[in-house]
Amino acid sequence: MMKWIRLFLVCLLLTPADGKAQRLAEIHYGVETAGFAATGDYTPFWTASNRYGTVPLAAVNGYLRADVTHSRQVTDDFRWTVGLDVLCAAPRYRNMYVQQFYAEAQYKQLTASIGSKEQYISLWDRRLSSGDMIQSANARPVPEINISVPQFIVVPFTDGLLQAKGDVSFGLSLDTKYLDGFAREGEAYVKNVRRHHKSLFLRVKDTQDGFPFYGTLGLQHTAQWGGTSTDPKTGRQPGAFTDFIRMFFARHGGADANLSDQINVLGAHHVSYDMQIGYRREDADWEVQAYYQHLSYDASGLSFYNGADGLWGIRLDLFRFPWLSKVVAEYVNTRNQSGSFHHILFNHDKHPGMGGGGDDYYNNGIYTNGHTYFNRGVGSPLLPSPEYNADGTMGYPGTRILDWHIGLEGTLTPQASYRILYTLMNGWGTSLRPFLRKKAGTSFLIEIVYTHPDLAGWTFTGSLAGDTGDVFGSGGGGVGIGISKRGVASWR
Q1: Out of 59, 102, 284, 412, which could bridge 416 as a Cys pair, Cβ 3.0 to 4.6 Å?
Q2: DSSP 3-state assignment of 2?
Protein backbone atom coordinates (compact mmCIF):
# COMPACT_ATOMS: atom_id res chain seq x y z
CA MET A 1 0.00 0.00 0.00
CA MET A 2 2.66 2.53 1.03
CA LYS A 3 4.67 1.99 -2.15
CA TRP A 4 1.70 3.14 -4.24
CA ILE A 5 1.25 6.23 -2.10
CA ARG A 6 4.97 7.07 -2.36
CA LEU A 7 4.86 6.62 -6.13
CA PHE A 8 1.89 8.99 -6.37
CA LEU A 9 3.67 11.63 -4.28
CA VAL A 10 6.73 11.35 -6.51
CA CYS A 11 4.52 12.07 -9.52
CA LEU A 12 3.32 15.24 -7.80
CA LEU A 13 6.80 16.40 -6.78
CA LEU A 14 8.22 15.88 -10.26
CA THR A 15 5.54 18.09 -11.78
CA PRO A 16 6.98 21.40 -13.05
CA ALA A 17 5.66 24.31 -11.04
CA ASP A 18 5.86 26.81 -13.86
CA GLY A 19 6.93 27.23 -17.46
CA LYS A 20 5.59 28.81 -20.59
CA ALA A 21 3.82 25.64 -21.64
CA GLN A 22 2.22 25.11 -18.22
CA ARG A 23 -1.23 26.56 -17.59
CA LEU A 24 -3.90 25.85 -15.00
CA ALA A 25 -3.06 23.15 -12.44
CA GLU A 26 -5.54 21.69 -9.97
CA ILE A 27 -5.60 19.29 -7.05
CA HIS A 28 -8.99 17.78 -6.25
CA TYR A 29 -9.28 16.03 -2.91
CA GLY A 30 -11.98 14.19 -1.05
CA VAL A 31 -12.60 12.33 2.19
CA GLU A 32 -15.68 10.18 2.72
CA THR A 33 -16.98 7.86 5.40
CA ALA A 34 -20.14 5.77 5.37
CA GLY A 35 -21.75 3.06 7.44
CA PHE A 36 -24.65 0.67 6.91
CA ALA A 37 -26.59 -1.56 9.30
CA ALA A 38 -29.23 -4.10 8.25
CA THR A 39 -31.25 -6.94 9.77
CA GLY A 40 -30.82 -9.56 7.03
CA ASP A 41 -28.01 -11.88 5.98
CA TYR A 42 -26.53 -9.16 3.77
CA THR A 43 -26.62 -5.41 3.38
CA PRO A 44 -29.62 -4.50 1.18
CA PHE A 45 -29.02 -5.06 -2.54
CA TRP A 46 -29.17 -1.43 -3.67
CA THR A 47 -26.94 -0.34 -0.80
CA ALA A 48 -24.06 -2.34 -2.28
CA SER A 49 -24.82 -2.50 -6.01
CA ASN A 50 -23.49 -0.16 -8.71
CA ARG A 51 -20.99 1.48 -6.34
CA TYR A 52 -17.81 0.14 -7.96
CA GLY A 53 -17.49 -2.59 -5.34
CA THR A 54 -16.82 -0.22 -2.44
CA VAL A 55 -19.58 -1.42 -0.08
CA PRO A 56 -19.08 -4.87 1.54
CA LEU A 57 -21.97 -7.34 1.47
CA ALA A 58 -22.00 -7.88 5.25
CA ALA A 59 -25.19 -6.72 6.98
CA VAL A 60 -23.20 -4.30 9.15
CA ASN A 61 -20.35 -2.58 7.35
CA GLY A 62 -18.57 0.70 6.83
CA TYR A 63 -15.71 2.36 5.02
CA LEU A 64 -13.41 5.36 5.08
CA ARG A 65 -12.22 6.72 1.74
CA ALA A 66 -9.66 9.34 0.75
CA ASP A 67 -8.73 10.41 -2.76
CA VAL A 68 -6.58 13.03 -4.43
CA THR A 69 -6.36 13.92 -8.11
CA HIS A 70 -3.76 16.22 -9.65
CA SER A 71 -4.36 17.58 -13.15
CA ARG A 72 -2.66 20.15 -15.31
CA GLN A 73 -3.90 21.93 -18.41
CA VAL A 74 -0.73 22.07 -20.50
CA THR A 75 -2.21 23.62 -23.65
CA ASP A 76 -5.70 24.36 -24.89
CA ASP A 77 -5.88 20.83 -26.28
CA PHE A 78 -3.74 18.77 -23.90
CA ARG A 79 -4.33 17.88 -20.26
CA TRP A 80 -2.88 15.20 -17.99
CA THR A 81 -4.08 13.78 -14.68
CA VAL A 82 -2.87 11.42 -11.96
CA GLY A 83 -5.16 10.05 -9.27
CA LEU A 84 -5.02 7.98 -6.10
CA ASP A 85 -8.03 6.66 -4.20
CA VAL A 86 -7.58 4.56 -1.02
CA LEU A 87 -10.28 2.75 0.97
CA CYS A 88 -10.46 1.19 4.40
CA ALA A 89 -13.52 -1.08 4.58
CA ALA A 90 -14.79 -3.64 7.07
CA PRO A 91 -15.62 -6.44 7.22
CA ARG A 92 -13.73 -7.33 4.09
CA TYR A 93 -10.86 -9.35 2.70
CA ARG A 94 -7.87 -7.02 3.13
CA ASN A 95 -9.42 -4.04 4.92
CA MET A 96 -7.17 -1.41 3.30
CA TYR A 97 -6.74 -1.32 -0.46
CA VAL A 98 -6.25 0.93 -3.47
CA GLN A 99 -9.53 1.53 -5.30
CA GLN A 100 -8.09 3.81 -7.99
CA PHE A 101 -4.53 4.58 -9.04
CA TYR A 102 -4.02 5.87 -12.55
CA ALA A 103 -2.34 8.27 -14.92
CA GLU A 104 -4.33 9.82 -17.73
CA ALA A 105 -3.61 12.03 -20.73
CA GLN A 106 -6.27 13.81 -22.74
CA TYR A 107 -5.76 15.38 -26.16
CA LYS A 108 -8.89 17.15 -27.35
CA GLN A 109 -11.58 14.43 -27.07
CA LEU A 110 -9.18 11.47 -27.03
CA THR A 111 -8.29 10.05 -23.60
CA ALA A 112 -5.67 7.44 -22.69
CA SER A 113 -5.24 6.06 -19.18
CA ILE A 114 -3.24 3.36 -17.43
CA GLY A 115 -4.10 1.89 -14.05
CA SER A 116 -7.30 1.31 -12.09
CA LYS A 117 -9.91 3.99 -12.76
CA GLU A 118 -13.67 4.01 -12.35
CA GLN A 119 -14.89 4.22 -15.96
CA TYR A 120 -18.43 4.45 -17.33
CA ILE A 121 -19.10 4.59 -21.06
CA SER A 122 -22.57 3.03 -21.13
CA LEU A 123 -25.56 4.82 -22.69
CA TRP A 124 -27.74 4.04 -19.67
CA ASP A 125 -28.14 6.40 -16.72
CA ARG A 126 -25.35 5.90 -14.21
CA ARG A 127 -27.43 6.58 -11.06
CA LEU A 128 -30.90 5.28 -11.93
CA SER A 129 -30.45 2.37 -14.35
CA SER A 130 -30.29 -1.18 -13.03
CA GLY A 131 -26.93 -1.45 -14.80
CA ASP A 132 -25.31 -2.08 -18.15
CA MET A 133 -25.40 -5.75 -19.17
CA ILE A 134 -21.77 -5.77 -20.36
CA GLN A 135 -19.89 -3.34 -18.10
CA SER A 136 -21.74 -1.56 -15.33
CA ALA A 137 -20.54 0.36 -12.27
CA ASN A 138 -21.00 -2.67 -10.02
CA ALA A 139 -17.46 -4.04 -9.60
CA ARG A 140 -14.10 -2.56 -8.67
CA PRO A 141 -12.12 -1.08 -11.58
CA VAL A 142 -9.70 -3.50 -13.24
CA PRO A 143 -6.07 -2.38 -13.76
CA GLU A 144 -5.93 -1.72 -17.48
CA ILE A 145 -4.76 0.34 -20.40
CA ASN A 146 -7.76 2.24 -21.73
CA ILE A 147 -8.04 4.40 -24.84
CA SER A 148 -11.37 6.13 -25.28
CA VAL A 149 -13.47 8.90 -26.70
CA PRO A 150 -15.78 9.10 -23.67
CA GLN A 151 -18.17 11.72 -25.05
CA PHE A 152 -19.86 11.88 -28.44
CA ILE A 153 -17.89 13.83 -31.05
CA VAL A 154 -19.00 14.87 -34.51
CA VAL A 155 -17.76 12.61 -37.31
CA PRO A 156 -16.09 14.72 -40.03
CA PHE A 157 -17.84 15.27 -43.36
CA THR A 158 -21.31 14.42 -41.99
CA ASP A 159 -22.64 18.01 -41.62
CA GLY A 160 -22.92 17.43 -37.88
CA LEU A 161 -25.48 14.64 -38.27
CA LEU A 162 -23.31 11.71 -37.13
CA GLN A 163 -21.48 11.49 -33.79
CA ALA A 164 -19.37 8.70 -32.32
CA LYS A 165 -17.80 7.58 -29.06
CA GLY A 166 -16.18 4.38 -27.81
CA ASP A 167 -13.28 2.75 -26.05
CA VAL A 168 -10.83 -0.15 -26.11
CA SER A 169 -9.11 -1.56 -23.02
CA PHE A 170 -6.79 -4.38 -21.99
CA GLY A 171 -6.57 -5.35 -18.33
CA LEU A 172 -5.50 -7.96 -15.80
CA SER A 173 -7.47 -9.32 -12.85
CA LEU A 174 -5.59 -9.05 -9.56
CA ASP A 175 -8.06 -10.95 -7.39
CA THR A 176 -6.19 -14.28 -7.12
CA LYS A 177 -5.44 -14.03 -3.38
CA TYR A 178 -9.05 -13.12 -2.68
CA LEU A 179 -10.28 -16.13 -4.68
CA ASP A 180 -7.81 -18.38 -2.84
CA GLY A 181 -9.60 -17.53 0.39
CA PHE A 182 -13.13 -17.58 -1.04
CA ALA A 183 -13.23 -20.84 -3.00
CA ARG A 184 -14.06 -24.00 -1.10
CA GLU A 185 -11.74 -27.00 -1.33
CA GLY A 186 -11.78 -28.58 -4.78
CA GLU A 187 -13.48 -25.61 -6.44
CA ALA A 188 -11.52 -24.62 -9.56
CA TYR A 189 -11.03 -21.10 -10.86
CA VAL A 190 -8.62 -19.23 -13.14
CA LYS A 191 -5.84 -17.06 -11.73
CA ASN A 192 -4.53 -13.89 -13.37
CA VAL A 193 -7.32 -13.63 -15.93
CA ARG A 194 -6.65 -11.17 -18.74
CA ARG A 195 -9.54 -8.92 -19.68
CA HIS A 196 -10.59 -6.96 -22.73
CA HIS A 197 -13.40 -4.53 -23.50
CA LYS A 198 -14.21 -2.48 -26.56
CA SER A 199 -17.19 -0.44 -27.65
CA LEU A 200 -18.36 1.76 -30.49
CA PHE A 201 -21.47 3.94 -30.43
CA LEU A 202 -22.80 5.84 -33.46
CA ARG A 203 -25.48 8.48 -32.96
CA VAL A 204 -27.52 10.23 -35.63
CA LYS A 205 -28.55 13.60 -34.22
CA ASP A 206 -29.06 17.00 -35.79
CA THR A 207 -26.54 19.22 -33.98
CA GLN A 208 -27.26 22.29 -36.14
CA ASP A 209 -30.93 22.72 -37.00
CA GLY A 210 -32.39 21.04 -33.94
CA PHE A 211 -34.40 18.21 -35.50
CA PRO A 212 -35.94 16.65 -32.36
CA PHE A 213 -35.49 12.92 -33.05
CA TYR A 214 -32.19 11.09 -32.66
CA GLY A 215 -31.01 7.50 -32.55
CA THR A 216 -27.96 5.57 -31.37
CA LEU A 217 -26.58 2.15 -32.28
CA GLY A 218 -23.77 0.61 -30.27
CA LEU A 219 -21.72 -2.55 -30.01
CA GLN A 220 -19.91 -3.73 -26.87
CA HIS A 221 -17.59 -6.71 -26.60
CA THR A 222 -15.93 -8.05 -23.46
CA ALA A 223 -13.66 -11.06 -23.10
CA GLN A 224 -11.72 -13.03 -20.49
CA TRP A 225 -8.72 -15.00 -21.67
CA GLY A 226 -5.32 -16.31 -20.60
CA GLY A 227 -4.53 -17.10 -16.98
CA THR A 228 -4.03 -20.44 -15.26
CA SER A 229 -6.74 -22.70 -13.88
CA THR A 230 -6.31 -24.27 -10.46
CA ASP A 231 -7.63 -27.47 -12.04
CA PRO A 232 -4.51 -29.34 -13.25
CA LYS A 233 -6.52 -30.90 -16.08
CA THR A 234 -7.32 -27.44 -17.42
CA GLY A 235 -4.06 -25.72 -16.52
CA ARG A 236 -2.56 -22.74 -18.28
CA GLN A 237 -4.70 -21.11 -20.95
CA PRO A 238 -3.27 -19.86 -24.27
CA GLY A 239 -1.77 -16.39 -23.88
CA ALA A 240 0.58 -15.78 -26.82
CA PHE A 241 0.28 -12.84 -29.20
CA THR A 242 -1.48 -15.02 -31.76
CA ASP A 243 -3.98 -15.93 -29.05
CA PHE A 244 -4.47 -12.23 -28.32
CA ILE A 245 -5.40 -11.70 -31.97
CA ARG A 246 -7.82 -14.63 -31.82
CA MET A 247 -9.40 -13.22 -28.67
CA PHE A 248 -9.62 -9.66 -30.01
CA PHE A 249 -11.48 -10.74 -33.15
CA ALA A 250 -13.40 -13.54 -31.38
CA ARG A 251 -11.84 -16.34 -33.44
CA HIS A 252 -11.39 -20.05 -32.78
CA GLY A 253 -8.64 -21.14 -30.41
CA GLY A 254 -5.46 -22.80 -31.65
CA ALA A 255 -4.29 -26.37 -31.16
CA ASP A 256 -3.22 -25.66 -27.56
CA ALA A 257 -6.71 -24.45 -26.58
CA ASN A 258 -9.33 -26.71 -25.02
CA LEU A 259 -11.76 -28.43 -27.39
CA SER A 260 -14.64 -26.06 -26.67
CA ASP A 261 -12.52 -22.99 -27.47
CA GLN A 262 -11.26 -24.64 -30.66
CA ILE A 263 -14.85 -25.17 -31.81
CA ASN A 264 -16.22 -21.84 -30.60
CA VAL A 265 -13.97 -18.87 -29.73
CA LEU A 266 -10.91 -18.50 -27.53
CA GLY A 267 -11.87 -17.31 -24.05
CA ALA A 268 -15.15 -16.25 -22.47
CA HIS A 269 -16.98 -13.59 -24.48
CA HIS A 270 -20.09 -11.45 -24.17
CA VAL A 271 -21.42 -9.04 -26.79
CA SER A 272 -24.28 -6.57 -26.72
CA TYR A 273 -26.16 -4.62 -29.35
CA ASP A 274 -27.15 -1.28 -27.79
CA MET A 275 -30.05 0.61 -29.38
CA GLN A 276 -31.54 3.93 -28.33
CA ILE A 277 -34.03 6.38 -29.80
CA GLY A 278 -34.82 9.77 -28.30
CA TYR A 279 -36.86 12.92 -28.73
CA ARG A 280 -36.12 16.44 -27.54
CA ARG A 281 -37.03 19.82 -29.00
CA GLU A 282 -34.76 22.77 -28.27
CA ASP A 283 -37.61 24.73 -26.67
CA ALA A 284 -39.06 21.75 -24.79
CA ASP A 285 -38.74 21.22 -21.06
CA TRP A 286 -38.56 17.43 -21.36
CA GLU A 287 -36.68 14.67 -23.17
CA VAL A 288 -37.60 11.02 -23.61
CA GLN A 289 -35.50 8.00 -24.59
CA ALA A 290 -36.34 4.37 -25.27
CA TYR A 291 -33.61 1.76 -25.40
CA TYR A 292 -32.80 -1.92 -25.72
CA GLN A 293 -29.56 -3.77 -24.95
CA HIS A 294 -29.47 -7.21 -26.56
CA LEU A 295 -27.16 -9.56 -24.65
CA SER A 296 -25.41 -12.44 -26.42
CA TYR A 297 -23.00 -15.10 -25.21
CA ASP A 298 -22.16 -16.78 -28.53
CA ALA A 299 -23.06 -16.86 -32.22
CA SER A 300 -26.63 -17.92 -31.48
CA GLY A 301 -27.24 -14.75 -29.49
CA LEU A 302 -25.60 -12.59 -32.15
CA SER A 303 -28.22 -13.92 -34.57
CA PHE A 304 -31.06 -13.31 -32.06
CA TYR A 305 -31.64 -17.03 -31.46
CA ASN A 306 -32.02 -16.00 -27.81
CA GLY A 307 -35.07 -13.90 -28.59
CA ALA A 308 -35.30 -10.59 -26.77
CA ASP A 309 -32.96 -11.40 -23.89
CA GLY A 310 -31.47 -8.24 -22.47
CA LEU A 311 -32.40 -4.87 -21.04
CA TRP A 312 -35.39 -2.77 -22.17
CA GLY A 313 -35.85 0.74 -20.82
CA ILE A 314 -37.43 4.18 -20.95
CA ARG A 315 -35.90 7.37 -19.58
CA LEU A 316 -37.74 10.67 -19.07
CA ASP A 317 -35.95 13.92 -18.19
CA LEU A 318 -38.03 16.83 -16.86
CA PHE A 319 -35.83 19.92 -16.98
CA ARG A 320 -38.25 22.38 -15.35
CA PHE A 321 -39.78 20.15 -12.71
CA PRO A 322 -37.12 19.85 -10.00
CA TRP A 323 -39.23 17.72 -7.65
CA LEU A 324 -39.09 14.90 -10.22
CA SER A 325 -36.29 15.63 -12.65
CA LYS A 326 -35.66 12.13 -14.03
CA VAL A 327 -37.49 8.79 -14.31
CA VAL A 328 -36.04 5.48 -15.53
CA ALA A 329 -38.13 2.32 -16.01
CA GLU A 330 -36.55 -0.97 -17.12
CA TYR A 331 -37.38 -4.58 -17.86
CA VAL A 332 -34.62 -7.23 -17.80
CA ASN A 333 -35.20 -10.74 -19.14
CA THR A 334 -32.51 -13.43 -19.59
CA ARG A 335 -34.68 -16.57 -19.66
CA ASN A 336 -34.49 -17.56 -23.33
CA GLN A 337 -30.72 -18.20 -23.64
CA SER A 338 -31.22 -19.74 -27.13
CA GLY A 339 -32.96 -22.72 -25.57
CA SER A 340 -32.34 -24.93 -22.58
CA PHE A 341 -29.61 -27.18 -23.99
CA HIS A 342 -26.26 -26.48 -25.61
CA HIS A 343 -26.30 -28.48 -28.86
CA ILE A 344 -22.53 -28.67 -29.07
CA LEU A 345 -22.65 -31.25 -26.27
CA PHE A 346 -24.16 -33.67 -28.79
CA ASN A 347 -22.78 -35.19 -32.01
CA HIS A 348 -21.98 -32.08 -34.01
CA ASP A 349 -21.39 -34.07 -37.22
CA LYS A 350 -24.83 -35.61 -36.98
CA HIS A 351 -26.48 -32.39 -35.82
CA PRO A 352 -24.72 -29.56 -37.68
CA GLY A 353 -25.68 -25.93 -37.28
CA MET A 354 -25.15 -23.06 -34.92
CA GLY A 355 -24.97 -25.20 -31.80
CA GLY A 356 -26.52 -22.70 -29.41
CA GLY A 357 -28.65 -23.13 -26.34
CA GLY A 358 -28.08 -23.06 -22.60
CA ASP A 359 -26.09 -19.85 -22.97
CA ASP A 360 -25.83 -19.38 -19.20
CA TYR A 361 -24.81 -15.71 -19.37
CA TYR A 362 -21.78 -14.59 -17.32
CA ASN A 363 -20.75 -18.22 -16.62
CA ASN A 364 -18.09 -20.22 -18.46
CA GLY A 365 -16.80 -23.78 -18.23
CA ILE A 366 -13.14 -22.74 -18.09
CA TYR A 367 -13.45 -19.30 -16.48
CA THR A 368 -15.55 -20.54 -13.59
CA ASN A 369 -14.97 -17.19 -11.84
CA GLY A 370 -17.65 -15.89 -14.20
CA HIS A 371 -17.94 -12.34 -15.52
CA THR A 372 -16.72 -10.91 -12.20
CA TYR A 373 -13.92 -9.07 -10.47
CA PHE A 374 -13.37 -9.93 -6.80
CA ASN A 375 -16.49 -12.07 -7.31
CA ARG A 376 -18.64 -8.94 -7.81
CA GLY A 377 -20.50 -8.95 -11.13
CA VAL A 378 -18.99 -6.76 -13.86
CA GLY A 379 -22.25 -6.73 -15.84
CA SER A 380 -25.77 -6.22 -14.55
CA PRO A 381 -26.01 -6.68 -10.77
CA LEU A 382 -29.53 -8.07 -11.24
CA LEU A 383 -27.92 -11.44 -11.94
CA PRO A 384 -26.79 -12.09 -8.34
CA SER A 385 -23.00 -12.06 -8.07
CA PRO A 386 -21.03 -15.17 -6.99
CA GLU A 387 -19.98 -13.11 -3.97
CA TYR A 388 -23.33 -14.17 -2.48
CA ASN A 389 -22.32 -17.86 -2.65
CA ALA A 390 -21.88 -18.55 1.06
CA ASP A 391 -20.72 -22.13 0.38
CA GLY A 392 -17.63 -21.01 -1.54
CA THR A 393 -18.78 -22.20 -4.96
CA MET A 394 -17.70 -20.29 -8.05
CA GLY A 395 -19.89 -18.79 -10.76
CA TYR A 396 -23.37 -17.34 -10.99
CA PRO A 397 -26.03 -19.59 -9.43
CA GLY A 398 -28.93 -17.82 -11.16
CA THR A 399 -28.62 -16.52 -14.72
CA ARG A 400 -32.27 -16.87 -15.76
CA ILE A 401 -34.11 -13.82 -14.42
CA LEU A 402 -37.09 -11.59 -15.17
CA ASP A 403 -36.96 -8.26 -13.32
CA TRP A 404 -38.79 -4.94 -13.37
CA HIS A 405 -36.96 -1.82 -12.21
CA ILE A 406 -37.72 1.86 -11.67
CA GLY A 407 -35.50 4.76 -10.64
CA LEU A 408 -36.50 8.31 -9.68
CA GLU A 409 -34.56 11.39 -8.67
CA GLY A 410 -35.30 15.02 -7.98
CA THR A 411 -34.62 18.04 -5.78
CA LEU A 412 -36.63 18.70 -2.62
CA THR A 413 -34.98 22.02 -1.69
CA PRO A 414 -31.94 23.91 -3.00
CA GLN A 415 -29.88 21.92 -0.47
CA ALA A 416 -31.60 18.50 -0.54
CA SER A 417 -32.03 15.95 -3.33
CA TYR A 418 -33.31 12.39 -3.40
CA ARG A 419 -32.93 9.14 -5.31
CA ILE A 420 -35.32 6.17 -5.24
CA LEU A 421 -34.68 2.71 -6.70
CA TYR A 422 -37.18 -0.15 -6.68
CA THR A 423 -36.79 -3.56 -8.33
CA LEU A 424 -39.12 -6.54 -8.57
CA MET A 425 -37.02 -9.71 -9.00
CA ASN A 426 -37.65 -13.26 -10.21
CA GLY A 427 -35.00 -15.97 -10.66
CA TRP A 428 -35.05 -19.57 -11.88
CA GLY A 429 -31.39 -20.60 -11.49
CA THR A 430 -29.62 -21.88 -14.62
CA SER A 431 -30.73 -24.24 -17.36
CA LEU A 432 -28.43 -27.00 -16.09
CA ARG A 433 -29.10 -26.32 -12.39
CA PRO A 434 -32.57 -24.82 -11.99
CA PHE A 435 -33.84 -23.83 -8.56
CA LEU A 436 -36.34 -26.26 -7.02
CA ARG A 437 -38.72 -23.32 -6.89
CA LYS A 438 -38.57 -19.82 -8.26
CA LYS A 439 -36.84 -17.24 -6.10
CA ALA A 440 -38.63 -13.91 -5.92
CA GLY A 441 -38.39 -10.67 -4.01
CA THR A 442 -38.09 -6.91 -4.12
CA SER A 443 -35.27 -4.47 -3.40
CA PHE A 444 -35.54 -0.76 -2.75
CA LEU A 445 -33.41 2.25 -1.84
CA ILE A 446 -34.47 5.71 -0.65
CA GLU A 447 -31.52 8.09 -0.48
CA ILE A 448 -31.41 11.74 0.62
CA VAL A 449 -28.38 13.96 -0.02
CA TYR A 450 -28.03 17.26 1.85
CA THR A 451 -25.52 20.08 1.37
CA HIS A 452 -25.40 22.95 3.87
CA PRO A 453 -25.05 26.44 2.32
CA ASP A 454 -22.50 27.48 4.96
CA LEU A 455 -20.38 24.31 4.75
CA ALA A 456 -18.72 24.44 1.36
CA GLY A 457 -17.81 21.03 -0.02
CA TRP A 458 -19.56 19.06 2.71
CA THR A 459 -22.23 16.49 1.79
CA PHE A 460 -24.43 14.48 4.16
CA THR A 461 -26.23 11.34 2.98
CA GLY A 462 -28.91 9.23 4.62
CA SER A 463 -30.53 6.13 3.17
CA LEU A 464 -33.18 3.55 3.90
CA ALA A 465 -33.00 0.25 1.99
CA GLY A 466 -34.38 -3.25 2.14
CA ASP A 467 -34.87 -6.61 0.46
CA THR A 468 -37.88 -8.93 0.63
CA GLY A 469 -38.21 -12.53 -0.49
CA ASP A 470 -35.42 -15.08 -0.86
CA VAL A 471 -33.27 -13.73 -3.70
CA PHE A 472 -30.58 -12.48 -1.29
CA GLY A 473 -30.63 -14.67 1.79
CA SER A 474 -33.30 -13.92 4.35
CA GLY A 475 -33.93 -10.35 3.23
CA GLY A 476 -34.30 -7.50 5.68
CA GLY A 477 -34.03 -3.75 5.96
CA GLY A 478 -31.40 -1.28 7.00
CA VAL A 479 -30.17 2.28 7.18
CA GLY A 480 -27.04 4.04 6.03
CA ILE A 481 -25.36 7.35 6.73
CA GLY A 482 -22.47 9.04 4.98
CA ILE A 483 -20.41 12.23 5.24
CA SER A 484 -18.00 13.55 2.64
CA LYS A 485 -15.83 16.61 2.12
CA ARG A 486 -14.54 17.59 -1.29
CA GLY A 487 -12.43 20.51 -2.41
CA VAL A 488 -10.11 21.83 -5.07
CA ALA A 489 -6.97 23.92 -5.11
CA SER A 490 -5.79 25.53 -8.35
CA TRP A 491 -2.91 27.71 -9.49
CA ARG A 492 -1.08 28.75 -12.63
Answers
A1: 412
A2: helix
